[in-house]
Write a structure and sequence with these properties.
Blueprint: E1 25-27, E2 33-37, E3 40-45, E4 50-56, E5 62-70, E6 73-80, E7 84-91, E8 94-102, E9 108-115, E10 121-127, E11 131-138, E12 141-149, E13 155-162, E14 169-175, E15 180-186, E16 189-196, E17 203-213, E18 216-225, E19 229-237, E20 250-254, E21 259-264, E22 267-278, E23 284-289, E24 293-294, E25 300-301, E26 306-310, E27 314-321, E28 324-332, E29 341-346, E30 352-357, E31 362-367, E32 377-380, E33 390-395, E34 401-406, E35 410-418, E36 424-433
Antiparallel strand pairs: 1-2, 2-3, 3-4, 5-6, 6-7, 7-8, 9-10, 10-11, 11-12, 13-14, 14-15, 15-16, 17-18, 18-19, 19-22, 20-21, 21-22, 23-26, 24-25, 26-27, 27-28, 29-30, 30-31, 31-32, 33-34, 34-35, 35-36
């Protein structure tokens, strides 16, 4: 006799760590975190303190993940050691790999997607094949628009923005040679500009932010390097007239100080080194600008605050005070055998910071101060998990605790945990490290 029942099976708990790459995690303006978890892209809801799902399509480690808010919809971009880039889209409530871009011949190390005013999307990608590819999506169809050979040097990271006050895209790339390479797209053609020099080691991260100064739009470009320094470059409109003997639409000249004059069509810009930030003692891996916020009057404001993540086990917030950039906030880890942070992101409102470390763990801090004149950053509960294949799992005799061991040389204990709101979910209670990890190469 067959008995009918309404019983069902549903996913209740996921535990997985973050990959050991600089751009493996991104916190979207929809307040969801997407990050590389092995060959998966995991989605983490910080409000619920829960990993909600994992997206599977890559066949090897995910190196970079980015959210894009485009035409009212949210999309995810991911790149992988499997040499592909995937554009994930939410279709009928399910995340699907809508497009897979295959042109790189080696692992793809960095990506950056930029929403264009005409409704299209630009995507820059760099890889171990020492080539930077630029893609353009028109009416849901991707085309390879331009390729930039970089041999013999390898590019590690890429960032995009718009030239201040224009709709002209600018792309910055950086990597092994320690220089920042600039390109712009003028009249649908990509043109190489000058290099910004100064770093003495690999560049690990690049990030742009647009802000308003003296009623004019300007642009900051921050770069983080293995020389433990952060350099901030400023792109701003210039009042100087275009060169009288210059007929080309794109021209640039080097100034006597550390900077350049740049002519684009009939507009003039200056590119100068604004500041060098020195406080970290080890490699600077991740950088992230504070997201734009809205004031009580509804005005959009761009706070000039920069988060940096370093192998010295610290995360800092930098901001200009009386003309000088200072690290106004310092959080991190003290003691233990952790080896620092690979990257970090602000929450959409800038009141939380999430960083991921060498052992795959997340670290979450929240500004709990209600006084706008002071800050009080306190650690918060977050998710975690193994950052290498899981070898075995076992329930205890009472089925209250779950133990897992993995190739990351850790043993982890999980149990159900209820908050005051009575929301339940699995949590890691203990993590035992059986061998101290070595310094990343």
């Amino acid at each position: 006799e067959v008995m009918e029942t309404n019983a069902g099976v549903q996913l209740d708990f996921i535990a997985v760590g973050c990959n050991r790459t600089t751009n493996a995690m991104d916190w979207g303006s929809n307040d969801l975190v997407a990050y590389g978890a092995g060959s998966f892209v995991a989605l983490y809801d910080p409000k619920r303190c829960k990993i909600t799902e994992t997206l599977r399509s890559h066949s090897a480690r995910v190196n970079a993940v980015q959210w894009l808010h485009h035409n009212g919809n949210y999309e995810i971009f991911s790149s992988s050691v499997d040499k592909t880039i995937i554009n994930w889209q939410l279709i009928q409530g399910q995340w699907v790999p809508a497009h897979t871009l295959k042109k790189h011949t080696e692992p793809v190390t960095g990506i950056f997607a930029l929403s264009l005013p005409d409704g299209n999307v630009l995507l820059g990608s760099c890889g171990a094949d020492r080539i930077v590819h630029i893609w353009r999506r028109i009416k849901d169809e991707w085309n390879l628009e331009h390729s930039i050979p970089c041999a013999p040097k390898m590019i590690e990271t890429v960032a995009m923005a718009f030239i201040p006050g224009t709709q002209i895209p600018i792309m910055a790339t950086g990597g092994v040679d320690g220089d920042i390479h600039l390109h712009i797209c003028y009249e649908n053609k990509w043109i190489g500009l000058f290099n910004l020099s100064g770093h003495l080691d690999w560049i690990r991260s690049l990030t742009f932010v647009e802000f308003v100064e003296n009623s004019q739009k300007s642009l900051f470009l921050a770069s983080g390097s293995q020389d433990a320094k952060i350099r901030i470059w400023k792109f701003s409109p210039s009042s100087m007239p275009p060169p009288a003997n210059g007929t080309a639409n794109i021209m640039f000249t080097k100034m006597s100080t550390k900077g350049f004059n740049l002519k684009i069509s009939e507009k003039m810009f200056t590119v100068i080194l604004d500041s060098i930030l020195i406080a970290h003692q080890e490699w600077v891996y991740g950088l992230d600008w504070h997201p734009s916020v809205f004031s009580t009057s509804g005005e959009k404001i761009q706070p000039l605050r920069l988060m940096s993540s370093s192998m010295d086990r610290s995360v800092m917030i930098w901001e200009p005070q009386q003309g000088l950039w200072v690290n106004s906030v310092v959080v991190g880890e003290v003691g233990g055998n952790t080896l620092g942070f690979f990257g970090g992101k602000f929450s959409p409102d800038g009141k939380q910071m999430l960083a991921h470390g060498y052992n795959g763990a997340f670290h979450l801090w929240k500004n709990t101060s209600e006084d706008s004149s002071r800050e009080a950053w306190e650690t918060q509960v977050t998710v975690s998990g193994h950052f290498a294949p899981v070898s075995d799992i076992c329930w205890d005799s009472s089925s209250r605790y779950l133990l897992s061991v993995g190739e990351d040389k850790t043993c982890r204990a999980y149990s159900q945990w209820a908050k005051k709101s009575n929301r339940r979910g699995g949590r890691i209670l203990r993590r035992i490290q059986v061998e101290k990890p070595g310094k990343p190469k």
